[in-house]
Amino acid sequence: MSKTKNSLASILNKASELYNNDQFSQTSKYLSKSQSKTIYKELKDIAANKKSKLILLTKILKPLILPTAKRTTLESKLKLSQLSFKKNIIIYMPNHKSHLDEFILGFTFVNEKIPVPITAAGENLFKNRTSNFVLKSYGAFKIRRDKYSVDEHYYRLLSSYLGASIMAGEQIMSFQEGTRPRDGKIGLFRKGIIGTIEKLFNDMKDNPELEIEDITFVPIAINWSENPDEKKITADVSSKAEETDLISRFINFKKTHSSKDIRGVFIGIGEPVSYNQYVAGNNPDENDSYAIGICNEVRSRVVGMMPIFKEHLLYSSIQFLNKYNKHVKIEDFNQLLEVTLKIISDYEDNIKVIETDGFSVESRLDLMEKRDIIKFSKDKLSFEVLNPNLVEYYANHVTSLTEDRET
Questions:
Q1: How do residues 265-290 score in pLDDT, each as one tens digit?
Q2: Cα–Cα distance between 191 and 290 in angstroms, integer?
Q3: DSSP string for 140-180
Q4: What are the residue ranges spanned by the domains of the chain?
Q5: What angle (nearest 5°) sits at the alpha carbon of residue 232, between those of residues 186 and 330?
Q6: What pLDDT sits at residue 2?
Q7: What is the CATH number of domain 8-305?
Q8: Is residue 240 predicted with pLDDT exceeding 60?
């Protein structure tokens, strides 16, 4: 791919040019200098501003910033460093569990010695100057979900920015669920910016100067033994994305979890989907687009990689027993847990169960009581569920995988 310069100024200048050409391609009229300055400013508000020194510094400070990163399991069906970056648009497509997903995945890219991609992030995350600086420095660009499909001007801004970034050789990461699912399941992968990237590719592929031949969609599965955002996303399972100050989330991390309590994070890198190969073997939708089909294919590969943490089986057993008894007996719980583990282990689609270091049923139940999820009886022979939403959230990690693999 014949690249333009990838400095922020170069990308913004190219994006402004693309916006201008798209806006007025059918006429001889172009933006005035004043209008161009406004467009540039709006593009800058959207754009990531990666700072390589800061990104590399996080590799050194990783144990201090996010100790859980030390307990990450990476399983990959390909070496990221062997992806063909030269003539392919690379799109990473993970599911979404936590606001810390981007950082955990960023550590993975740095460790694999490949460029950190630019990442679509909801505008609600850019709450103040500090969050804005950290997110953009780490590669996040701002996206307005409420404007994406209804505001033509905003769509052109975002499309122009993505086009200029692709020409500069940037890889892109997008969480196609759109937000962190409140129910614990893996949500549908929506078309979103994948349709925009498809359109950009079809506009660019015949340009010999760009040498763009294909789009490579990389499925990424991510799962946490305990989600740092659990209280936020289970307080009201029907709520929309809240305004979130990520800096405060780091500072207040231990108010919801001690980092030692989060025993593991799983990251799976799946077999990529080639746009050209997918188009050759499938039919488009009514809009002559393959974006929805590709999103469904990538999602199925994410589901196929996703493991269950043994911690989640505890919640699944509690959820079942709590349907029939207000006070769950420890004896019944242990028996059902053993049966559930056997059923999952024997499941024909081979769902992997991860047992984290230091795992024990007793310690996990104690942690649940500490988090006000359950309350033990005085004799410690039974417990009462205090937070059924959170129990259901983790139990759905188990049930949704078995349901999805059967469809």
A1: 999 999 999 999 999 999 999 999 99
A2: 9
A3: EEEE-HHHHTT-HHHHHHHHHHHHHHHHTT--EE--TTSS-
A4: 8-305, 308-406
A5: 80
A6: 47
A7: 3.40.1130
A8: no
